Structure formats: structure tokens, C-alpha cells
Amino acid sequence: MKELICIVCPRGCHLKVDENDDYKVTGHRCARGVLYGYQEMTAPTRVVTSTVVLENAGEERCPVRTSQAVPKAKMFEVIDIVRKLKISAPVSLGQVLVPDIAGSGADLIATRSFSGTGN
Amino acid sequence: MKTQQYDLVVIGGGPAGMAAAVSAYDQGVRSIVILERDKQLGGILNQCIHNGFGLHHFKEELSGPEYAERYIKDVRARDIEVRLESMVLDLNSERIIQLVSPSHGFELIEAKAVILAMGSRERARGGIGTPGTRPAGVLTAGAAQRYVNLEGQRVGENIVILGSGDIGLIMARRLSLEGCKVHACVEIMSEPGGLARNIVQCLQDFDIPLLLSHTVTRIEGKKRIEAVHIAKVDMQMRPIPGTERRVACDTLLLSVGLIPENELSRAAGVELDNRTKGPQVFENLQTSVPGVFACGNVLHIHDLVDHVSDESARAGRAAAAYLSKQTDTAGGDLIALEAGRGLRYTVPQRLHLRPDLEKLDIFFRVTHTAEEQKIIVESGGKQIALFRRVHVAPGEMEKITLPAKVLAEIQPGAKLSLRLEAAL
Amino acid sequence: MYDIAIIGAGIIGASVAYELSRYRLKILWLEKENDVSLGATRANSAIVHAGYDPPAGSRMARLNVEGTRLMPALCEAVDAHYKNTGSLVLAFDERDRSTLRSLKEQGDANGVPGLQVLNREETLAREPALNPDIVGSLYAPSAGIILPWELTLGLAEVAVREGVDLRLRQELQTIRYEADHWKLETQNETYQARRVINAAGQGAEKIHRQATEPAFHLLPTRGEYYLLDKAVDPQVSHVLFQCPGPLGKGILVTPTIHGNTLIGPNAELIEDGEDTSTTYAGLAEVAQKARRSVPNLRFGENIRHFSGVRANREVDDFYIAMHDKGFLDLAAIKSPGLSAAPAIALYARELLEADGLEVQPREGWNGRRKVRRFAERSPEDKAAMVDANPAFGRVICRCQTITEGEILEAIRSPIPPVSIDAIKRRTGAGLGRCQGGFCGPRVLEILSRELGVDPAEILQDKDGSYIVLGDNRPEVRI
User: Fold this and answer.
1) Residue A13 within any structural domain of the chain
2) For residue B4, what are the β-bridge partners?
3) Domains defined for chain B, CATH in brackets
4) Closest CB from C393, C399, C473 relative to B100
5) Which residues of A touch C475 (CB under 8 A)?
6) Residue B247 β-bridge partners
7) Which end of chain B is least crowded, N or C, by CB within 10 Å?
8) What's the total number of domains in chain A?
9) ipTM
């Protein structure tokens, strides 16, 4: 039996997941908790957020994230790509910067818009 | 000197100010200005690049800048004036504002209504009294967040975090992803201050030890910080002799709480609440100064921006109602709310019990973590409502809504008191 | 060859540099740190003492009373804040009351103006937040408060503008007399000067021993302080001392120029004269003793605690002496050294003259300086300032309302700041309740931009106190 705090929403339900009973979840208060408990034990995923170097916007960095959660094991692989990236304004929110980043199935997207007015 | 008139002045262009301005506009107020001291709207959300915003409000998981941009679009889609790089120097009880900006110079503004939405500031080292030297490399988690996320700077390599507030936890993950070694997150209380999801995603994911009932007893290093001394504390939060150990580090982040930015609230003569450190408000979020409303972190510290948006939209509607003279805040019975056993505070702190009041939202925080609790609402010694909670924690703001039929049972002249009790 | 070398840029070095800049002299001024006023000058009680403490007839008494008399005009000249608050020495019992009477006698003999013994009611009327158990007080109307680092900067900026050759980051390693002059070697330079003034604070004893026979011994004494937020009750309006007694000199509670409440210091002998750390025990002692004067002090509203090290010595006196070959010690300038500083500078000039230094006034000497402080201006002035320069419309420090315009003027001042704390001492940015949490990153950005250096080069304070490590995307070439 593994104890987990559900992170799907801020309520933070205290889940119990039974590895010996096909990852049966208890302690949840909604169906998303069941899914989370199962996934967290079998194939945990995380949304990765970071920043990339930004030119031509008068700001130093553009915030980015993966369009969906990626396998937890791929977090640092995603970050390694992000660290080498350089983009130039204009940038629009949601713009895909790297499709299928690190083969994760998720895209790296910009999370803020910048007009190209800066230098 | 230029003096200008507006129906509504919103001080602060973060999530609170934007939501308040938008809802006031949608209620028909047409002369609105948002005064924002930064170069852009969005406030602190711009540096909160992590995800987790908007789950309640948009049913989506957004990052801070994304959440902000939705509201910026809402503001821009309306005829709401926005003044950037504009700092309010003074606000008096007559709602006269002194404002300065590089583009417009020094100005006076007369407002018929004002919404305070200045947000909060971080508690600094002085507020927690950690002794030792005063080297560089000791900074608040929010300052570090700004350096890393907006300025693109590295703040250090070997990090210790004092306090388990959400910003500190978020920065533990952020700095780990940036290649830093976070050695520990040290919390003086016996339970963490931040949200459970952040404990999991920001500490456990990166094997960062969370040292509960511990504190930093000494800071070492003359120029740049070289080490902290960490000790276990007793029930009175005093360091226990003999438990101290030295942890070498080049950075100490402080995440020991937020305090409402109450400089202007004080200047306006608004009555403050000792517990929230923000203004005391009525059910419509009006402060003790007529026509001055408050919402967001300037009122009380929120853990979710979604709640800030909801609260601020209410403030916007209330200001609109005030401007159209629909709300006579002096009418009805004045009822004081009392945060009883198990509660740290309530917002609002008082209400005008009017027959037309349809419902009452009460926000509060509990004093301790507990399972299977009930929240008992009493008036004149009689229980008038009961709410159940499976889990409560100080780090998570609670809300109850009293419907009209419960409000009808409030005894005039008696306190409306709330307390927490085990449900079993 | 310099006529005079001054060692140390604290309040004493600055007072002397200012005074001597009036004359046709070639003056070298060495300081080991990257700015002036980084020793005892920046961490003390910031009090201008009336002068009843030093023994009647002593030189210390004369310098104290004269310095306190000169202080308002000197502050006015260099545009440094001064506030004449008056002080109260509090008596808690009959023994204290007799101490008050002897302090008054001593003060009268020292020429302290207007001393008055007040009864309990008169005292409480002046200062309602006091412990109601007090039995009386000694009121000294001439006492006041200043910002010691600001006065030091004011004096130093005038001195530099008037030709004094200030060399920062020059730590004196050896000093010796050769034929007809002193040879001074720092870590990377050699200087020559006819006369030397030793105003090196905690470092004065070491320098003295290289130059001449041992004559005094410093006992570095650390004192810890609380600084409470402004606008927090209870507030006090006078400098409040406790009666010196068997338990020591007591803890003082005083308003500051910016409206905060300053509380301290305790007294702890330490070995390292630069150890300005604070301790649980020291802070607890300060808080406990201070509550005896003002019971309801709210230490929860503390915004900063700090400590300073006084250059005490084996006897209760300054060490001021003119030696052979033009070597002048201005050492062990302990309390009330800050108050006495203006008089010590004049006395130093007299000693140098008696030693044969010829002083001829320079024509066109201007001993004044002005600083533009946005927050202190009228609305009309504020409007005019921003109209003339939009940078005055950009508020950087929101706690103290300090604008970018003021920071830019500081950067272009005669002693250019190289750290965030140097900007704080010049403008007040970061002195408020958030202690630079908000404005620190913004000041760093401005300094980096204006000085044309990488943010990683910008210091918090002394050399080595870097704030950021550099760009966090070094992989990306821009």
C-alpha cells in the first residue's frame, strides 16, 4: 500500500494505492483522483515549465511550458533542449516552439505574448 | 497641477485589479482607470511561470502569464484606461490620489470609488529575526523568482530554503530544474505552509528534504552566505540545544509568508484587521472608508489566484453598485463576524444585514490541519448552519456560503460566530 | 608627495577630510573598503549626545559638547538629515534619581545647555509610551538624531569635490618613516606623505604600532540592535536612555530620521573587530532590557536587526595624540565619537598646526552640497522634477518612495556607488520595511546598465558580496 497526496487539484486528497490489488485507489474525493493514483504509480507525468532566451522584445526571457504533461523521467531531457533555445519576438501565447519535445508527444509552447517592439 | 476625475480608480493591475475593473465595467461603470506601477499589467503572475493556475476559474491548468494574459485581453477589450509605470504616492479618506509616472508626471486624481488591489509583499529576514551575519545571498523567494524567471540570472548553486510557503516550494523545483542543488526546505511549524501538491511536485520529485519543526538558527559568511545552522525546535518553536547542524550553502531563500501591502490602506484611514493585516471589510468588500473597497492579497492572503479573481469581481460589482447608489452600506443591522475556535480569521469581518442580501460568502483559514471536521455557524448562541469538511489545513483557504434562508436566522445585535469541531 | 594622508573613511576620517579640504593642502585619503562609512559609522545608535556623560573638565566632554553644538549647521551645509529630538535619561528608583542629579551637575559643568530634571508626570507627558513605573528623568534639549552614513557621505563628497584624493579599496599594509616622509604601502600601491592621520577605526591600533610605540589598546565591543517598522505604535519622540547603573549602561530606545524605532545596543567584548553578526542571546537581552523603558514595544514589527562594533579601549577615553614626525592618532573614537566628530576635526587641525603644518585657506572653497530627495518635496516641486526629468516619475523603492532619478544622480555623484547598499546609503532605497526585497533587483538592473557591467559584477555591499552568478542560459550565444 502506497500513500500519495493527490495533486490534481489543490484539495490534496490523501490517496492510498494498493500495488497488490491492481493499483486500487482509496481516499479520493473525485474520479480524477483515481486516475491520478493509478498513473502516478504506473506512469507518472508532469507539466514542465521554464524560460527561453528571448530577443527583440526588450525582455530577457520568454516563459514556456509543455502543452501537456510529459513522462516524469523525461523532465530533464526537456529542460536540456529548453536551455539551448533562443527565440525572437514577436511571440504569441500558445505558439509552438518545439513540436513533440524530446519525443514526449507534448509540444513546447510560449506562455506569454511579446510584440517585437523592443530591441 | 493636473487634477482628474474618475468614477472608479483601481489601484494595482495584477489579477485582483484587472478582475475588479472588468466586472465594474460590465456592471455599467464607464469611467475607470487602472493604476499599475509596473511596465505591464499582470502583477506577480508575470514571474509565476509555473503551471497550476486557473483550474477553478477556467477549468484548465495555466501558467501565471497565461492566466494574466486572459485578463489583460478582457481589460483591453473594454474601454478601461490603463496607466502603466504609475505609482500611487498617497490616498486619503476623501479618495484623492497622488500619482506619479514618467509619462504623465505628478498628478492628482479624484475618485468617486476606489478599489484597493495592491497585492502583498514578502516577509523579510527582519520579520523572523534569524541571527548571524548579513551577507549577500539571503533573499526572499519572490526576489529570486524575479531574478531567475524575468532577468535570466542564476542566484546561486547550493540552496537552502527557509519556510515552506508556496513561492519557496515553487522555487525549489525551479532551481532544481535550473541545475542547482537544493539541500533542504526548513519549516519551523510542524506542518508545511504551502499546498500539498507543491510538497509533492516541488520537493518530493527532486528528493529535497522537508525539515518540519526545524529552523535556521544562524547565518554564516561575511560577504556571500557560506552556511546556515539548522536546528530542531520544541513546541514553543525554540531551537533545541544539541540538534544544531551546519549546512554549507551559497544562497538562503526566505519563504516565510506574505503580508498585505497596507501602506495606502493606512494612509486612507482604513481600519485594519490585526490577523489578516489587511483592511476590515463588509460583506460587499467595502472598507471602513465609504467608497473604498479591497480585494485580492491586499485584503487577505490567498493561496489560489482563482479565488482572487472571484473575490475581485465581487469588489468590482460592489463598487459599481455603490456608484449607482444601489447599495446603502449604512442600512441594515450591523453584524460582527467572529472567528471562533479553530479559525484564524474571517473575511468579511462584519456585515450589514439587509433584507435584499441574497447570500453571504465567508472566507476563512483554520488554525491547524485536521480530518473530518464540521464548521458550525452560530448566531445568538443558536446554530444556524453546519458545513462538513473531509480535510482542512491552514495553507488552504476555506469558503462557505450562507443562503438567504440562513441569513434570515441571524439575530440582530448578536455576533455571527464560526468555529471548527471534529465531526465524529 | 602628499602633505597629508588620512587613513580611514568613517565619520572621523570624513570630518577631518572635509575640514582640511578648506586649505591649500595636497591630501591623500585611503580606505580599505569599496565605499566610505563601512565600519562603525554605519552601525551605531545614530545619536547626537548632549554631553553630560563624559567627566567634567575632560577633553572628551569638551569635544562632545562642542561637536553637538556644531552638528546642526554642519548637517545643513552638506544636506544631511538632523533632528533635534532632545533626550531623556530615565530613572526607575531613588538611586537612579540621585544619578540624574549628578549627571545634571556634570552636564552643567560641561556646558550642556538647558538640562532639566523632570518628575514622573512631566516625563510621561513628554513621552506617553514610557513605563509608568518611572520616577523621573533628565531632559537634555540639545540631543538629536542623524544618519551617520549620510553625514559621512556628505562630508566626503564635498572633500572629494574640493580636491581630496580619495582612494577606495586601498588597504594599508605597511607604514614607515623614511628620511622626511611617511611611506605607505597598500596591497598594490605605494604613497608618500609628510604627515599621517590615523582614523582607521578598528584598524587604528595596528597602524599605530607600526608607526610608533604602543600607547593604547582597543577592545572591540559589539552592540546589537533592532530596527522596528515605521508607523507602528507605540512611537517615541525622544532619545530614551536608561540610567547607567550596576547592570551597565542600559539599552536606548530612539526614533530614527525615517520614523522607525531603533533599540539597542548591548555590549559584548569580541575578538574580531569586524564581526558584525547578531545572536539570539544578544537580541533577547536588548529586547528584555528595552521593555523596561517602553513596555509595549512591538518586536514582531522588526524589519532589521544588526550589530555594530565600537572601538572601545582600556580606559574610558578617546586616544587622540600628535606624535613625532607628524603622525596623528584619532583612535578609539568610541561613544560619543559621532557627536564629537565635528569638534575632533577642528581639534585635529589645531594639533597639526601646532606641529608646524601651514594652513592657508583656498579661495573658492565651497563646503556645501545638495541632494534632491523626491519624497521630501512639495507636490508642485514633484511635478516640476518629473517634467524636467521623467526618471523622477519612476518609483524604484516603494517603501521609501525613492525614484530612478535620485538613483541616477547618486551614480553620478563624486563618490560613485558600486553596490546596492551604497545606493541605499546615498538615496534611502531599501531602507524601508521590505528591506530591498522589492527594489533590490531593480537597483541591480539600473547599476548594471549605468555602469556598463554584467549583473554578476554588482555587489550587495563589500567586495565579494555578489548577488547573482550570471546569465542562466550560458549555452545560448546571443
Assistant:
1) yes
2) B109
3) 1-122+258-330 (3.50.50.60), 124-256 (3.50.50.60), 332-424 (2.60.40)
4) C393
5) 83-84
6) B228
7) C
8) 2
9) 0.93
